[in-house]
Amino acid sequence: MKNIRNFCIIAHIDHGKSTLADRLLDVTNTITDREKQAQILDSMDLERERGITIKSHAIQMDYEQDGEKYVLNLIDTPGHVDFSYEVSRSIAACEGALLIVDATQGIQAQTISNLYLAIENDLEIIPILNKIDLPNANPEDVKDQIVDLIGCDIDDILSASGKTGEGVPEILEAIVARVPAPTGDPKAPLQALIFDSEFNSFRGIVAYIRVMNGEIKKGDAVKFVNTGKEYQADEIGVLRLTQEPRKSLSTGDVGYIISGIKTSTEVKVGDTVTHRDNPCAKGIVGFAEVKPMVFAGVYPIESEDFEDLRASMEKLKLNDASLTFEPESSMALGFGFRCGFLGLLHMEIIQERLDREFDMNVITTVPNVSYIAHTKKGDKFEMHNPSEMPDPNSLDFIEEPFIRAQIITKSEYTGSIMNLCMSKRGMMTNQQYLTSDRVELTYEMPLGEIVFDFYDKLKSISKGYASFDYFLIDVRPANLVKLDILLNGDGVDALSTLIHADNAQTFGRRMCEKLKELIPRQQFDIAIQGAIGAKIISRETVKAVRKDVTAKCYGGDISRKRKLLEKQKKGKKKMKQIGNVEVPQKAFLAVLKLD
Ligand code: GDP
Ligand code: MG
């Protein structure tokens, strides 16, 4: 136990976490040349393309120093706010954290939010200035920022380059010297923290665990404290480049357990594994049920694909417990599912996986956050869909989730960022200069406003020089109304949104304008109207046109005409027939791109 070191790496995206992790594996000979491939920790294709680590993994390294042998467990953490609960559980499995800061970028929003999590869990922080090989590195300034942020001594900061390998041996030395060995009682009843899990189509669910107390042996009868379910530890082992079975895992160890579980929902991140016959007194603190925060309808483009879509969603759910879905129907879109996601990135990932892995062509409706409706009768319930909004006579009030957002930017952009945040109903609670030209702004704002195009706008007005992170703080009363869109007089439920009353007028107008751009002309006029209850607040018209695509073709070139007709038919597939109006897929997300 005294020669084990469990640590994670926290960093803002692109500051070099994966590259440095690879280097550590390299220097400790954990990967052979043959196995070496760039960014080994990011194993999903999607992850690699996006350059972000979506699912956390762990890997064990052997390391020798002064004749003493050490076992180093690196626990990788997902960097995105959508997965912050998983990050917190990974951090809880460690005693130390490498805090990586890009020497050209300085401290960014995610650096800070992940650091807070690490500090809350009493982790030993090893600050590392990375990318020092770059000519535009600014080591002195960035070191000052780090000292300001964590209050360390300037000499405690290591300098490294994941690219050239410079400074990497010193990082390993510091891990051994500064990260405390695990504590805990090997004789106590078993208490192991599940910090992640993964679905394997042959083995079922593989749970990643950190043993906090006691010992687990292959074949033990175990119990998961929070779900109350009992299993047998069919296989346990450690995580090298592959899973390596072991006979036992003891206090301080990081490894995996396979116990014949087939669905992801039975294995909850943060749960505690103990022995059935000699259970620990209580579970490890910090367990929470992950709750989806963003909801959207997902509909097949062809209604006959509904059952296929259900099958695909069920498969996705097997390895992603945080995805929720239940059938719903829409007048406009037919049968589909109301899905719950951890956040917008998670929603995008699911949409992309449906497309890539299951070849499912879907329409996703405007996402909304989860609101709490209070009725005059004193009932309260969560609304995941604008259609669940009670009618004004029975509604008492609505509450919406609020976040605390941190934005770090160059001072020249603060003015426009403040305007943006104000337009999103944000209230500034703090403004702090990190250096003479870098500012940290703290805002409290409704999560519902972030769901729309906030991040894209922030990026464009700051020319990319703003980083942003947030966490949920509470729910607050909100004056929301339901805005409906009518096409030729018929309401299109899938286009309804809940919106703050003060913004409804402008929003309705822009929505109609945007839909006018997106809905192609047809053989009759199409009236697009925005309405709150029975009151029409905006209107646009798409003028009729007689659309004859073959008219452009001169002469009797039949094959060319046929091709054009084929093309038109295909084009139609991306349309959804609503009443007598054809609406293109992207219209359902028009609201996200209003400017
Ligand atoms: P992550 O998002 O924190 O995992 O960052 P990555 O490890 O994926 O690195 C982001 C980008 O920075 C990649 O293009 C890397 O090649 C590059 N990079 C990482 N570390 C270094 C470094 O030390 N020096 C230089 N010059 N580039 C680096
Ligand atoms: Mg990465």
TrEMBL record:
Cellular location(s): Cell membrane
Q: Which residues bind GTP?
A: D14, H15, G16, K17, S18, T19, N130, K131, I132, D133
Q: What is its main location?
A: membrane
Is Nucleotide-binding among this UniProt entry's keywords? Answer: yes
Q: What class of enzyme is it?
A: hydrolase
Signal as a keyword of this entry, yes or no, is no
What the entry lists under InterPro entries is as follows: EF-4, EFG_III/V, EFG_V-like, EFTu-like_2, LepA_C_sf, LepA_CTD, LepA_IV, P-loop_NTPase
Q: Report the EC code(s) recorded for this entry.
A: 3.6.5.n1
Please list the residue ranges annotated as the Tr-type G domain: 2-183
Q: Which UniProt keywords apply?
A: Cell membrane, Elongation factor, GTP-binding, Hydrolase, Membrane, Nucleotide-binding, Protein biosynthesis
**PROSITE patterns to which the protein is assigned, alphabetical:** G_TR_2
Q: Which GO terms describe its biological process?
A: positive regulation of translation
Q: According to its record, how does it sit in the membrane?
A: Peripheral membrane protein
Residue ranges the record marks as coiled coil: none
Q: Which SUPFAM superfamilies match?
A: EF-G C-terminal domain-like (SSF54980), P-loop containing nucleoside triphosphate hydrolases (SSF52540), Translation proteins (SSF50447)
Function description: Required for accurate and efficient protein synthesis under certain stress conditions. May act as a fidelity factor of the translation reaction, by catalyzing a one-codon backward translocation of tRNAs on improperly translocated ribosomes. Back-translocation proceeds from a post-translocation (POST) complex to a pre-translocation (PRE) complex, thus giving elongation factor G a second chance to translocate the tRNAs correctly. Binds to ribosomes in a GTP-dependent manner.
Q: What is this protein called?
A: Elongation factor 4
Natural source organism = Labilibaculum antarcticum
